[in-house]
Amino acid sequence: MDGSSEAARSGRAGFRKIKIFDTTLRDGEQSPGMSMNLPEKIEMARQLERMGVDIIEAGFAISSPGDFENVKTIAETLKDSVVASLARASKLDIDRAWEAVKGAVSPRIHVFLATSGLHMKHKLNMTPDQVYEQAVEMTKLAARYCADVEFSAEDATRSDRGFLAKVIGGTIAAGATTINLPDTVGYTTPDEHYDFFMDMRERVPALEKVTMSSHCHNDLGLAVANSLAAIRAGVAQVECTVNGIGERAGNAALEEIVMTLFVRRESYKAETNIHTEEIMHASNMLTGITGVGVQPNKAIVGANAFAHEAGIHQHGVLSNPLTYEIMTPESVGLKESNLVLGKHSGRHAFGERLKRLGYDISKDELTKVFRKFKILADKNKVVSDSDISALVDETMVGEGAVGESSVGEQSIGETAFGEN
Ligand code: MN
User: What separation in Å is there between the alpha carbon of 152 and the centre of ligand 1?
Assistant: First the structure.
């Protein structure tokens, strides 16, 4: 790790600490195509812990025997991160959640119940009074087991604020130590979300004594912006996932929130415990496990997110990297050597690079592309990722193996790099 993340861990004077609650293994895993088995979940959980995630939601213990085992094993494996299990506001769920997390060094039970009119009427079939009673009673039960209890008011952003305030007050009195107000359906906007949290703080003074948390979904592409607005309004915990995976359009992306707080720390006066240079590793691990990649232009972790770096080397005119970089590739765990390939690079390094760029090609194909690469490297001295992609696409298209669209995107990228 580098000095900057050490500084973040030690804490800067006047900076608020924002806890990162990662739900890649719960909300993330709930989305289509993202199922993970036990060894995969443990591998991912270890990486999240290594990255400095404060709270890891390991699963939903009652949802299946497999998920129970996953949560239990992760709880017993990790040492530094808090390990949480989700539970509906019912005795059966909470008992099961506690069974799963009680072996953790730092266990948490995460109880949730919906508070919006829509959910109470059409999903729960309960009156607001019944919801209030159940939220309070079940929070009390969880607090008897565990000192660390989070209560989430599902669909909080579409709930009646007077009623929501009552539920928040009741669950804090019942022992909740974290109050999470999710934008479950990704409906809110940054300005509205800021006002929402400021309003709830005014309505429920007891919120100042607990950790206030946000959980945003990306249905309108605003999950990260909404999370940052919530931070500005005083939340001290944000719930998010690696690569932004999660129900429907996903959750707020961990790497985007963390790097915004890192790059714009003077603006937010806030910091996290995340070792940012572990971000790429976590992203690649998740992609490798699930087989679901991120789009090339994905912020922070996309294949093109730092592609300009190669252009800078090609031109060799940059006297100060800050001219074109708001963050270094190294700060998210990309090694510069991975970004620069020249005529001295060997076939092995070249093959590794192709793998990292997402190409899975045969030995014969590798030989062909490598030959073209050497010719280009002689001419250009430095060969960028986009050059390499173009070489592969050109070679594969010649054989009819790669679709039109990737070639089209690549040539657009080339033009942009050349002109900028
Ligand atoms: Mn969610």
Answer: 10
